[in-house]
């Protein structure tokens, strides 16, 4: 897949995801409108939609259809956006900008931002657990009901674990505890593979599960997700040092100012780049089982390490 083909693929999938997000969220005027305005402000602030696109690409690689995984992809974007809203709060990273505009708490206040994050996390599991009534044709989430109830229960469990205290939340805890403290490599790997990597890894697994991937396919997707998740965060660490507000959509240099544990701080920028390139190479090798169906994931791996935001 050429860079131009990848660009078209990402844009087409982003549009599908945005349409699903619109479909699955309460309207801005639904009462209480203050919370729904704050939720929609954060969801529709832009962004790459990389995580939901990974869900869709994994389903396609495993021989499934985009429609089978679209509601799960939207649910994961809800969880991702909730985590960004909370990350930006003064008690955590205290950031003023996200995706190029003021953060949720700067516009709606801290209390409403906390509740907006809570609402998005809850909405994700409403969507994932929805069962259509027998007398309705195409209700909320019906596309994924082609899969078995057992598979959907597994998806709910895996996403909950990835988002919880042994996944993303656990990584956030380690991140906070190691501000202004030196971290060794094992600690840094734990932090990144949990805070960022856990939710990226589960994107690949969810796409595979909903497409009825076999054990070897699911293991290949898992290996890809683990390596891409870590590579993504390493590149994020580098961009925080080298980027700017216009390119990143948030203030650069925040990790350095807060003395956070990062790969560049421990290994230096060039060694961090080598780590990211090696991880991407390993991720791509794990996709050989999918042959041409893995082309989008192959191209996304290169995008992860070459991106500028």
% residues in beta strands: under 5%
Strand order of the largest sheet: 1-2
Strand-and-helix sequence, N→C?
A: HHHHEEHHHHHHHHHHHH
**CATH architecture tag:** Orthogonal Bundle
Shape: globular
Q: How many individual helices?
A: 16
Radius of gyration: 19 Å
Mean pLDDT: 89
Task: Name the poorly predicted regions.
Answer: 133-145
What does this structure look like?
This protein is mostly helical and about 300 residues long. The chain has one domain (about 5-130, about 145-305): Farnesyl Diphosphate Synthase (Orthogonal Bundle). It is built from 16 helices and 2 strands. It has helices at about 5-25, 35-45, 50-60, 65-85, 105-110, 110-130, 150-165, 170-175, 185-195, 195-210, 215-240, 245-250, 255, 265, 270-285, 295-305; strands at about 95-100, 100. Strands 1-2 form a two-stranded antiparallel ribbon. A hairpin with a 2-residue loop joins strand 1 (about 95-100) and strand 2. The radius of gyration is 19 Å and the shape is globular. Mean pLDDT is about 90; it is low at about 135-145.
Write the SSE topology.
Layout: H1 3-24, H2 33-43, H3 50-61, H4 66-87, E1 97-98, E2 101-102, H5 104-108, H6 110-128, H7 149-163, H8 168-177, H9 185-195, H10 197-210, H11 215-242, H12 245-248, H13 254-257, H14 263-267, H15 269-285, H16 295-306
Antiparallel strand pairs: 1-2
Helix pairs in contact: 1-3, 1-4, 2-6, 3-4, 3-10, 3-16, 4-6, 4-10, 7-10, 8-9, 10-11, 11-15, 11-16, 15-16
């Amino acid at each position: 897949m050429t860079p131009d083909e990848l660009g078209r693929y990402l844009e087409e999938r982003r549009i599908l995801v945005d349409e699903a997000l619109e479909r699955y969220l309460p309207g801005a005027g639904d009462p209480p409108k203050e919370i729904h305005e704050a939720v929609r402000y954060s969801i529709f602030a832009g962004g790459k939609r990389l995580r939901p696109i990974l869900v869709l690409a994994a389903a396609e690689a495993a021989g499934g259809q985009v429609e089978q995984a679209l509601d799960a992809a939207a649910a994961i974007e809800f969880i991702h956006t909730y985590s960004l809203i909370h990350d930006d709060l003064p008690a955590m990273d205290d950031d003023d900008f996200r995706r190029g505009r003021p953060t949720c708490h700067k516009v709606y206040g801290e209390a409403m931002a906390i509740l907006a994050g809570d609402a998005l996390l809850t909405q994700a599991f409403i969507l994932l657990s929805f069962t259509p009534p027998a007398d309705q044709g195409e209700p909320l989430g019906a596309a994924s009901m082609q899969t078995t109830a057992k598979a959907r229960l597994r998806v709910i469990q895996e996403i909950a674990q990835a988002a919880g205290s042994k996944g993303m939340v656990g990584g956030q805890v380690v991140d906070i505890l190691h501000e202004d403290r030196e971290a060794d490599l094992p600690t840094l790997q734990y932090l990144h593979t949990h805070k960022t990597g856990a939710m990226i890894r589960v994107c690949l697994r969810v796409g595979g599960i909903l497409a009825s991937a076999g054990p070897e396919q699911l293991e290949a997707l898992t290996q890809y997700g683990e390596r891409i998740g870590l590579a993504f965060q390493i590149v994020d660490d580098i961009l925080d040092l080298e980027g700017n507000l216009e390119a990143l959509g948030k203030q650069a240099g925040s990790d350095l100012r807060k003395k956070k544990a990062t790969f560049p701080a421990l290994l230096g920028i060039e060694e961090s780049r080598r780590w990211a390139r090696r991880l991407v190479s390993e991720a791509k090798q794990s996709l050989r089982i999918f042959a041409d169906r893995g082309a989008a994931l192959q191209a996304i791996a290169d995008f992860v390490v070459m991106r500028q935001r």
